[in-house]
Amino acid sequence: QFFSQGFFTSTKKYDVGNQMLMMIHKSSRQSAMWQREQRELQLDRDALDQRARESKLQAAQKDEDQRAARQEAMQIWMDEACRFEATQAAAEKSWMVFESTMLSFIANLGRGRAGGS
Fold this sequence. Notes:
The protein is mainly alpha-helical. It contains 2 helices and no strands.
């Protein structure tokens, strides 16, 4: 009785239709998963690129800081050298003044004795 009414033949049509719908659904679900994975991969690549840019900026800043520190140290050294040279020159001048004064004093002593005898 079921066969004569086409009950089983119509369920086969529905089965094929359901299978088609399931395949379409599965395919769209896989496509959505693939797209999500691609977005995640792109986000990962973007994050890596950002870290690389930040790393380059940090390295450049470190190089600049080191260059500035070397330049500052060189300037301090040059300032110290100038102060040392100035101190040396002042000491030499002071010594020359002292020598000159002593020689004048000794010369005056000699004249005083020569005149007093």
